[in-house]
Specification:
Strand content: 25-35%
Number of strands: 12
Order of helices and strands: EEEEEEHEHEEEEE
Strand order of the largest sheet: 7-10-11-12
Helix content: 25-40%
Structural class: alpha+beta
Number of domains: 2
Largest sheet: 4 strands, antiparallel
Distance between the termini: 112 Å
Radius of gyration: 41 Å
Oligomer: single chain
Length: 213
C-alpha cells in the first residue's frame, strides 16, 4: 500500500487506521513520530492506494456571488454619483469665478472713463426667457451707442460677455446703472448674471467715481 503525502513533505508514512467509510484518519510521520490528521481518506481497491481529498476547499454559492455583485454595483453607483456631483460643482465654481472677474474688469474700465461719458449701459448677449437686464441694443459692437465706441478697438476694451468655460461657451449679461448723488460723483452698480442648469445667478458690485479722479 502506498500513501500520497507530498503536501505533508513525508518521506515515509503509514496509515494507522482507515476504512472506506470513515471520514477522518491519521498518518504517522516517521521523522517526528507524530500523528498528522488528514481531512478525508479514500481507499481505492483497484490501485491499492490511499488518496486524501481536502474537505475544507469550498467554492462560492450562487447566492453569495449575487450578494457580492449587488454590493459591488451599489459601490460603483455611489462613486459615479460622487464623480458627477464633483464635475457639476467645479463647473459652477468656474462660472461664478468668471462672473466675478467680468465684474472687476468692467469696473476698471468704467473708472478709467471720463465721468461725463459714464452712462447706464450693458453687454447682454443672453436673450433667454427671464434673462436679467437683457436689452437687444446692448450688443458687443460699435452699434451699442451707450459705450461711446467709435471703433472696434474701443469696444474690445470691455470684457467679452461670451466666455469659453471648459468645453462650452457661457453667455453673461453685463449691466451697469449709473446714479448721480452729486454733480461730481457717480454711483455705478454693476451686475453680471448667467444661467446654470436652468437657474439664474448674478454677481453685483457698487463702485463710486469722482470727477477729480
Amino acid at each position: 500500500m502506498s500513501v500520497l503525502g507530498k503536501g505533508f513533505g513525508m518521506q515515509r508514512a503509514q496509515v494507522a487506521q482507515y476504512s472506506r467509510k470513515e471520514s477522518r484518519q491519521y498518518v504517522v510521520d516517521s521523522r517526528k513520530g507524530e500523528s498528522v490528521s488528514l481531512s478525508t481518506i479514500y481507499y481505492l481497491p483497484s490501485t491499492n492506494s490511499v488518496y486524501r481529498l481536502p474537505s475544507t476547499h469550498k467554492g462560492f454559492s450562487l447566492v453569495e456571488m449575487m450578494i457580492a455583485l449587488f454590493i459591488l454595483t451599489v459601490a460603483v453607483l455611489g462613486l459615479l454619483e460622487l464623480t458627477i456631483t464633483s464635475i457639476r460643482t467645479n463647473l459652477q465654481n468656474d462660472m461664478r469665478n468668471t462672473s466675478i472677474r467680468l465684474t472687476s474688469q468692467t469696473a476698471e474700465i468704467l473708472l478709467a472713463q471720463p465721468i461725463d461719458s459714464v452712462a447706464t449701459c450693458g453687454l447682454t448677449p443672453d436673450s433667454s426667457t427671464g434673462a436679467m437686464n437683457y436689452n437687444s441694443s446692448y450688443t458687443y459692437t460699435t452699434a451699442n451707442a451707450c459705450l461711446y465706441a467709435s471703433a472696434d478697438t474701443d469696444v474690445k476694451k470691455y470684457p467679452n460677455p461670451s466666455q469659453a468655460i471648459r468645453s462650452g461657451t457661457v453667455n453673461y449679461n453685463i449691466y451697469w446703472s449709473v446714479l448721480s448723488p452729486t454733480n461730481d460723483i457717480r454711483q455705478i452698480t454693476i451686475t453680471v448674471s448667467y444661467f446654470y442648469r436652468g437657474q439664474q445667478y448674478s454677481n453685483t458690485a457698487v463702485i463710486y467715481k469722482h470727477r477729480a479722479v
